[in-house]
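Sequence design from tokenized structure. All designs in this work follow the same two-part layout: the structure record, then the generated sequence. An example of the structure record is given first.
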């Protein structure tokens, strides 16, 4: 694994924390942080017991950590807790009238809910779910635009112990079918549609299509968002507003076991089938709460905005659970960053006086491309802290974010984590960590991260290898829904004897021990900060009648980080013409979603394969990236295939 190591190790610019920030740090000095981190990995039970004491419990735990049967961890066994209670009820005495959610729709409609109002809505909707037969342990699919009701639905599930499975509103009907069936969800919550770039995304229509293939679903709850009429199926479909009107307002939070499943969230793996990442209540909540507090340095008067959709884990942890568990004011914006214009985000920052802003490198690169003018029109002086997540942030984008958005005064927290880790695992702490553009710096408390070789031996600084976490942490995934074997196989098998968690990313530490993430080590792409399995896109392509064989690889994309390149062999009688390329792009968009639609389609009569028939993706990657292929090609069965692909590319 040697990708990019030299280039990242050349970055030596260091940005010390500003004295103002440091003076206010909740954690004292850099040395104190290091000492506390050391303690957190040497005495995890002591450390986490102290931290967990800051949550509200119905019953205290008997045992902090159970790692008796790795890789199946349990945390805070014997404890009784509720995530919705921690995000809502416990704030009512002191923060009842404080805004919890401040929302803006894409068309410009606005809504704010105080903690008291959000609590009331959540209780009512929890009763709606109960009324529809939802019980603790049932799984509920949520497929909605980014509206307050999405957060309400999530917290209502948590309140009664139903397991939510949020499915990003950009996914298509077949993707929805897979996820609903895998989780055997009984209820689907959706909306007539949502707004995206001035257009209505017809969510209910997609759900109707999906529900033809989901035998477990008996109820579909439909929020009116756009007002566009949608067909309602008698017996199955009910309107959100009608149900809410009839529902009782009180709903005590269920006293759930610490390990009670809180949610499932599907993410791509290197095989076609998405993985249902399962998180447990207490540990997840603690991770989300503590990281929000320290990484985002949340203060009582902050106006905090994480631009992620709740359909991704970032929205779960840093729009809903983390900030609300800390009693913060959370900004939510439904739509696209360039609607009606490319300054929409900055307009929002200015109008709501946003202080802490968390977004993805793919967005930052888009803003860079759209130009500084759109930013300069607005007063961004309220900002005091910036965050980045989803993929490695290139130093140019980091510097632009720092200077143009942050006015040179805001620390940047480049946060590395995964759907599986549940909460931020490697990140600077503002005011404490001297940052380096492009490095996620150092592990968070309780995270025993290391860079190791194939044998699991820690590598010296400067040598790239596998990123692992050497001991369990509270917000780690518990398993893959319904598939313990795959859970073991994907994350634990490689370093089974040591009990290390394999993150699936390559990493290297520089001379001073800073962590630099080098990207995924398997056949998984990172498109706009979201994992996409090459297999899943390939299966979609070969399902098209014109396609015989397909191979998908990533290529460097200016905005998306990685773009999707598809190499396709068409069947006899299908002309390899641009119209077919367009049809295939549309086909992938329809079967998986827009995020997976190929940016490039290369037609080829054959794919480069080894003698044993394995597709040589490395070579395809070179073609897609327009670079010369180096390295061993002796295993290539037919050298002509590659030559032809390259020639065609130059046409
Ligand atoms: C993968 C996880 C976690 C929220 C969003 C994505 C990449 C994430 C960073 C970062 C370098 C990053 C990794 C990771 N990644 N954050 N700050 N620097 N790479 O969640 O879909 O579970 O993807 O995203 O490759 O493994 P996800």
């Amino acid at each position: 694994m040697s990708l990019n190591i030299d280039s990242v190790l050349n970055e030596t610019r260091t940005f010390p924390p500003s004295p103002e920030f440091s003076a206010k740090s909740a954690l004292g000095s850099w040395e104190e942080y290091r000492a506390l981190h050391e303690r957190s990995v040497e005495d995890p039970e002591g450390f986490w017991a102290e931290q967990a004491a800051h949550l509200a419990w119905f019953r205290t735990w008997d045992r902090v950590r159970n790692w008796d049967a790795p890789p199946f961890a349990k945390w805070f066994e014997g404890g009784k807790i509720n995530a919705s209670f921690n995000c809502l009820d416990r704030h009512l005495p002191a923060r009842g009238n404080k805004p919890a959610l401040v929302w803006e729709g894409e068309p410009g409609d606005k809504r704010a809910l105080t903690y008291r109002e959000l609590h009331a809505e959540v209780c009512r909707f929890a009763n709606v779910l109960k009324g529809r037969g939802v019980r603790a342990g049932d799984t509920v699919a949520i497929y909605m635009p980014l509206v307050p009701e999405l957060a309400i639905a999530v917290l209502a599930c948590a309140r009664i112990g139903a397991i939510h499975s949020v499915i990003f509103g950009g996914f298509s009907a077949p993707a929805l079918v897979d996820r609903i069936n895998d989780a055997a969800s009984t209820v689907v919550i959706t909306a007539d549609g949502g707004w995206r770039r001035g257009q209505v995304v017809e969510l209910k229509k997609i759900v109707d299509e999906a529900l033809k293939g989901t035998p477990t679903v008996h109820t579909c709850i439909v929020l009116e968002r756009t007002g566009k009429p949608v067909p309602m199926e008698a017996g199955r479909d009910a309107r959100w507003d009608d149900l809410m009107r009839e529902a009782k307002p009180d709903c005590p939070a269920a006293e759930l076991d610490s390990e009670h499943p809180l949610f499932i969230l599907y993410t791509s793996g290197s095989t076609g089938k998405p993985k249902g990442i399962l998180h447990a209540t207490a540990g997840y909540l603690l991770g989300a709460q503590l990281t929000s507090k320290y990484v985002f340095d949340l203060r009582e008067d902050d106006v905090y905005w994480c631009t992620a959709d709740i359909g991704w884990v970032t929205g779960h942890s840093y729009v809903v659970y983390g900030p609300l568990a800390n009693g913060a004011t959370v900004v939510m914006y439904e739509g696209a960053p360039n609607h009606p214009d490319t300054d929409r985000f900055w307009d929002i920052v200015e109008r709501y006086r946003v202080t802490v802003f968390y977004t993805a490198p793919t967005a930052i690169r888009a803003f860079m491309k759209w130009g500084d003018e759109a930013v300069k029109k607005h007063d961004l002086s309220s900002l005091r802290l910036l965050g980045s997540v989803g993929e490695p942030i290139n130093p140019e984008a980091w510097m632009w974010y720092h200077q143009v958005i942050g006015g040179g005064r805001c620390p940047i927290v480049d946060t590395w984590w995964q759907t599986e880790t549940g909460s931020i695992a490697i990140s600077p702490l503002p005011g404490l960590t001297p940052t380096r553009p492009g490095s996620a710096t150092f592990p968070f408390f309780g995270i025993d991260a290391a860079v190791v070789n194939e044998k699991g031996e820690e590598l010296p600084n400067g040598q790239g290898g596998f990123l692992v976490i050497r001991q369990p942490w509270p917000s780690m995934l518990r398993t893959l829904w319904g598939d313990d074997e795959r859970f073991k196989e994907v994350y634990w098998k490689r370093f089974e004897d040591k009990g290390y968690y394999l993150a699936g990313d390559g990493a290297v530490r520089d001379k001073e021990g800073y962590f630099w993430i080098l990207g995924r080590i398997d056949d998984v792409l990172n498109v706009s900060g979201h994992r996409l399995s090459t297999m899943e896109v390939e299966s979609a392509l070969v399902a098209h009648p014109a396609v015989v064989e397909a191979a998908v690889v990533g290529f460097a994309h200016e905005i998306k980080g990685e773009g999707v390149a598809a190499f396709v062999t068409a069947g006899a009688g299908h002309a390899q013409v641009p119209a077919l390329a367009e049809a295939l792009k549309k086909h992938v968009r329809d079967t998986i979603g827009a995020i997976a639609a190929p940016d490039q389609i290369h037609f080829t009569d054959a794919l480069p394969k080894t003698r044993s028939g394995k597709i040589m993706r490395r070579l395809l990657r070179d073609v897609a990236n327009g670079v010369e292929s180096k390295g061993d090609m002796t295993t290539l069965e037919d050298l002509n295939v590659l030559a032809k692909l390259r020639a065609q590319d130059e046409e």
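Residues 267, 313-314, 389-392, 414-419, 440, 503-505, 517, 519-520, 526, 529-531 surround WT7 (CB under 6 Å). We note this feature because it recurs in several other targets discussed in the main text.
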